[in-house]
């Protein structure tokens, strides 16, 4: 009886007592994430909330000439900016274009970077040099370089099909014309041929966009235990079978990560169509409208990330570790 | 059977690493060669190696050729751009563009400023993201998942969404305040006024310290995946030996994370270096403006301003040359550090 009461007492006193070791250790985690939590609460969330507020209100400055004091006049706009954004045909068009381009780009980037990562993971002559060259775009072709590239009229990157036919230099070695003829005579559907040719013409862009994804895939490939491949080899599986039965399932979590990363990255980089459009609106200057537009845009991004995650996570295989 | 092979085996050559053994009844070298050359798998392998090499070489060419043509065009004189016979190799070699960019656009000042900014931000971001990543990966505290969700959200919000309010917040800096709602922040309560931080390095340093800077979500994500792969036993043995959490982190965990930290440092440094968004947002409009690298390519140097038939192409080449100058220090850094980049990733054992 006395034992029971003391146990009860202990439980009541438990709030004031030091928690057990595992809880104490777990709580030390807060110390490590403290910079982020403080930054989030003190700075980031206020910035986000302000941004939301800016999209619902307009601010104008009025100079009172008698007292020489600038007063800020806030007019609540409700959903006016959002209505205006949706009614803006240029915005809707660029949004649809952006989403359309993304639907084409995400599979292409993920497949391409997986393919290159698998090759770069094999032993071959000059592997170190190829690796060094393949990761140049990750370091160099970002930010300002993208802007310079987009302003460049001397650019070699093959933007449109016309330019390919116009510049003899490239149509020479890519043989685009012949490829078009050949593929369209294969009777595989015009859209598919168009899609593949479009990717080939944008190969430079594709390589530039898939740098980080390649790195993530390479890391994933390295983490697959070699003994699995050894077992496969002993069982007599061909390289093709090994790729589909071992590499793809083992790398599938990376495919999910890369799919999400590609959506986020291609939507948030400055060279994106929608970002460019919003930038021009911002500099018009129509800052509140631009903010409202980019909130709509963020919701679209979030929706797409969710969609990609939902579709891809159905195919993800997690290895059970013991 | 064992004894039979042993009796017929003869060591022909023995070095430190290799032993050549010759068996009595072995197929002769000539026959072995013929069998190898007539097998299909050998040739399939060779054809695959060749195709792979050509493919890799071709893609490398696609990556490098724009740089090559930019370098060659940067040495062209004005008249070469209207000359139809000149396509890649300049007819009149000149370094005018480089000279003008360095003198008129203040390249070296801009580079040193950017180098300082990038170095400070990259060092802080590497350490802070490492810390946050460790906290999220190794401690199962309540709210762990929520914090991680916020990390992902900071990555997904496009810059342009926050452009206006970032500008407002840092030109009128205060903590814990939603300015539009009129609440007073901490600094206003203590100091009696908010501080203007635009035009200095502080906005970027503060964002780096909090792990909410440019692409920091990605770094934290990479660090979390890395630390999930580090065995718990490592820390446990340190705890048993009497280390506290911080000493374990500094002396046991950080050294294991060095390859990954180098990768993140490289990313942070070079992305901050080529960043245009933040360096124009926080550094605009002042008279005593800190020159940063985006200013080098924005304006055409005064001594090169012309109007002639090839003007557009010439200006394009000037911008490209400015781009080359901007990335030149990064290229040098990359030459030395590229192996760490791949090594860091390889050892990371990132698992999704």
What order do the SSEs of chain A take from the amino end to the carboxyl end, as H and E? HHEEHHHHHHHHHHHHHHH
Briefly note the structural class of the backbone of chain B: mainly alpha
| CATH topology-level name of the largest domain in chain B | MetI-like fold
Compute the separation of the termini of chain B in Å. 51 Å
Structural domain count of chain A: 2
Do you know the CATH architecture of the largest domain in chain B?
A: Orthogonal Bundle
Q: What percent of the residues of chain A sit in helical stretches (DSSP H or I)?
A: over 70%
CATH class of the largest domain in chain B: Mainly Alpha
**Largest sheet of chain B, if any?**
2 strands, antiparallel
Strand order of the largest sheet of chain A: 1-2
Helix fraction of chain B by DSSP (H/I, runs of at least 4): 55-70%
Radius of gyration of chain B: 29 Å
The percent range for strand residues of chain A is under 5%
Shape of chain B: flat
**Number of β-strand runs of chain A:** 2
Spans of chain B of 5+ residues with little confidence (pLDDT < 50)?
A: none
Average the pLDDT over all residues of chain B and give the rounded result. Answer: 82
Could you describe the 3D structure shown?
The complex is a heterodimer of chains A (322) and B (352). Chain A has 322 residues and is mainly alpha-helical. Chain A has helices at residues 2-13, 21-56, 80-87, 89-121, 127-134, 136-140, 144-151, 161-166, 168-174, 176-184, 190-201, 203-209, 211-222, 226-235, 239-268, 273-282, 287-313; strands at residues 57-64, 69-76. Mean pLDDT of chain A is 78; it is low at 157-173. By secondary structure, chain B is mainly alpha-helical. Chain B folds into two domains: 1-38, no CATH class; 105-348, MetI-like fold (Orthogonal Bundle). In chain B, strands 1-2 form a two-stranded antiparallel ribbon. In chain B, α10 (216-229) runs antiparallel to α13 (258-273). Chain B is flat. Chain B starts with a helix and ends with a helix. The model of chain B has no long low-confidence stretch (mean pLDDT 82). Classes of the chains: A mainly alpha (322), B mainly alpha (352). Chains A and B meet through α2, α5, α6, α7 and α12 of A and α3, α5, α6, α7 and α9 of B.
């Amino acid at each position: 009886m006395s034992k029971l009461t003391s146990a009860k007492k202990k439980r009541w006193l438990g709030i004031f007592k030091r928690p057990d070791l595992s809880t104490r250790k777990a709580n030390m985690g807060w110390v490590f994430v403290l910079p982020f939590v403080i930054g989030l609460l003190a700075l980031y969330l206020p910035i986000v909330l302000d941004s939301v507020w800016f999209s619902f209100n307009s601010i104008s400055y009025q100079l009172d000439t008698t007292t020489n004091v600038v007063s800020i006049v806030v007019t609540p706009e409700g959903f006016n900016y959002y209505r205006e954004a949706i009614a803006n045909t240029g915005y809707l068009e660029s949004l649809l274009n952006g989403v359309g381009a993304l639907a084409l780009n995400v599979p292409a980037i993920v497949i391409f970077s997986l393919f290159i990562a698998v090759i770069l993971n094999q032993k071959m002559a000059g592997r170190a040099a190829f690796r060094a060259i393949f990761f140049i775009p990750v370091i160099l072709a970002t930010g300002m370089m993208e802007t310079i590239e987009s302003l460049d009229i001397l650019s070699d990157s093959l933007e449109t099909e016309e330019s390919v036919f116009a510049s003899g230099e490239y149509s020479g070695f890519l043989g685009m014309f012949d490829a078009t003829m050949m593929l369209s005579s294969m009777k595989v559907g015009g859209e598919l041929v168009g899609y593949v040719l479009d990717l080939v013409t944008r190969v430079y862009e594709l390589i530039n966009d898939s740098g980080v994804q390649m790195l993530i895939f390479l890391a994933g490939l390295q983490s697959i235990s070699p003994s699995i491949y050894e077992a496969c080899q002993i069982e007599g599986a061909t390289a093709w079978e090994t790729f589909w039965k071992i590499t793809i399932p083992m790398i599938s979590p990376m495919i999910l990560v890369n799919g999400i990363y590609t959506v986020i990255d291609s939507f948030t980089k400055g060279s994106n169509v929608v970002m460019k459009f919003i930038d021009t609106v911002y500099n018009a200057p129509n800052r509140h409208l631009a903010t409202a537009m980019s909130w709509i845009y963020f919701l679209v991004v979030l929706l797409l990330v969710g969609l990609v995650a939902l579709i891809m996570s159905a195919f993800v295989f997690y290895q059970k570790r013991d | 059977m064992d004894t039979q092979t042993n009796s017929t085996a003869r060591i022909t050559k023995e070095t430190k690493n290799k032993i050549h053994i010759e068996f009595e009844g072995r197929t002769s070298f000539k026959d072995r060669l013929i069998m190898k050359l007539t097998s299909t798998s050998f040739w399939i392998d060779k054809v695959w190696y060749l195709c792979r090499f050509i493919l890799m070489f071709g893609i490398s060419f696609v990556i490098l050729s724009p740089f090559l043509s930019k370098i060659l065009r940067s040495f062209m004189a004005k008249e070469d751009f209207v000359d139809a016979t000149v396509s890649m190799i300049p007819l009149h070699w000149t370094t005018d563009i480089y000279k003008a960019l360095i003198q008129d656009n203040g390249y070296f000042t801009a580079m040193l400023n950017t180098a300082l900014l990038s170095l400070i931000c990259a060092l802080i971001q590497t350490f802070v993201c490492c810390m946050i990543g460790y906290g999220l990966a190794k401690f199962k505290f309540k709210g762990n998942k929520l914090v991680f969700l916020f990390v992902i959200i900071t990555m997904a919000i496009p810059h342009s969404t926050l452009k206006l309010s970032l500008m407002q917040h840092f030109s009128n800096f205060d903590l814990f305040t939603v300015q539009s709602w009129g609440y007073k922040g901490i600094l206003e309560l203590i100091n009696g006024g908010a501080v203007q931080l635009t035009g200095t390095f502080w906005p970027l340093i503060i964002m780096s310290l909090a792990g909410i800077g440019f692409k920091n979500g990605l770094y934290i994500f990479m660090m979390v995946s890395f630390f999930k792969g580090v065995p718990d036993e490592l820390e446990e043995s340190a705890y048993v030996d009497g280390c506290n959490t911080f000493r374990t982190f500094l002396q046991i965990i950080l050294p294991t994370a060095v390859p990954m930290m180098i990768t993140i440092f490289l990313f942070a440094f070079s992305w901050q270096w080529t960043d245009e968004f933040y360096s124009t947002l926080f550094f605009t409009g002042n008279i005593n403006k800190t020159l940063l690298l985006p200013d080098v390519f924005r304006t055409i140097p005064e001594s090169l301003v012309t109007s002639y038939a090839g003007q557009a192409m010439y200006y394009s080449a000037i911008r490209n040359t400015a781009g080359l100058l901007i990335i030149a220090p990064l290229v040098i850094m990359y030459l030395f550090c590229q192996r760490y980049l791949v090594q860091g990733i390889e050892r990371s054992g990132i698992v999704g």
